[in-house]
Write a structure and sequence with these properties.
- With 310 residues, this protein is of the alpha+beta class.
- It has helices at 30-34, 58-67, 80-94, 166-178, 222-234, 248-251, 282-295; strands at 10-13, 16-19, 37-39, 42-47, 52-56, 100-108, 122-130, 141-149, 183-187, 193-196, 200-205, 208-211, 238-241, 254-259, 263-270, 273-274, 306-308.
- The strands form two sheets. Strands 8, 9, 10, 11, 12, 13, 14, 15 and 16 form a nine-stranded mixed sheet that branches. Strands 1, 2, 3, 4, 5, 6, 7 and 17 form an eight-stranded antiparallel sheet that branches.
- α2 (58-67) packs across α3 (80-94).
- The structure holds 4'-deoxy-4'-aminopyridoxal-5'-phosphate.
- 4'-deoxy-4'-aminopyridoxal-5'-phosphate (PMP) binds at residues 41, 169, 195, 198-200, 219, 221-224, 259-260.
Amino acid sequence: MAIHMQPGPIAYFEGKFVPVEQAKVSIMTHAFNYGTGLFEGIRGYYCADEDNILIFKLKEHVDRFIRNFNILCMDIPEGPQRIEEICVEVVRRSGFKEGVYIRPLCYKSELSLGPKLKGVESSFCCYVIKLGDYVDISSGLDVAVSSWRRLSDNAIPSRAKCTGSYINSALAATEAKQAGFDEAIYLREDGTVAEGSAMNIFMVLNNRLITTPPTADILLGITRNTVIQLAQEELGIEVIERPIARTELYVCDELFFCGTGAQVAPVRSVDRRMVGNGEPGPVSKRLQEVYFNVVQGKAPTYRQWCTPVY
Ligand code: PMP
């Protein structure tokens, strides 16, 4: 689903805060031509009790962002601390008092020809938009296994959030929507399950939570890590990371997606086969409840994951 953008008035671009309409790049920019950008998607939740926006797992997102610089040979003057400050500042300058989505982006900003990485100058920018629920998280999604394969980590590194790699997501999501489904599940080249078009996948089978491993051509989601920890600590459920076969999607008890955008989104059917009884199952519902409590800063144990803006 394309999101109609309602941006905050101020973005960070070329080393300073500027009106968002002035944050523009040339058509000759390397990243525009070759997809050589790396980005993050971070949510901030409006917490009415505190009249504040709480940014969820800011540090973890910035950490993943910076680690992946090495894959694309990125080098920028802004360090992790400064990037965190900029993320908070673009939200603060928006004045928003509702759910937001922050998009830090590092891109090959040089005006140069040739798809290479080393020695091509990079820049950092950041903007914020308003964002509510991105997919239906209440009644369950109808999903289909995609005919498009998840890109291999050895082709375009799936563990990095590279701008160019989202062609893969767009192809899978478009195919699913055109066929009347809400979302897609990708298989890997070896035929096992990878993830959704922009979200990780979990299945409940015999009271265990199972998700695909970090080597399954997935983006190692921050929400995935959160769900694993909350399932173990709050639900006392065993979590197993192992390959998932396509047919397990048809026989499991529960299935859900998770991601910054998707949050915790139950799946009610796969390839027109009902998952469980076709309703969000007890584990998915309980995890959803715990997750929303945590992101809204209401769980003291996990409060350090929430960064207040104002
Ligand atoms: N996989 C892909 C391909 C994604 O784009 C996303 C969204 N960032 C995810 C998984 C979920 O990652 P996260 O929980 O860090 O948002």
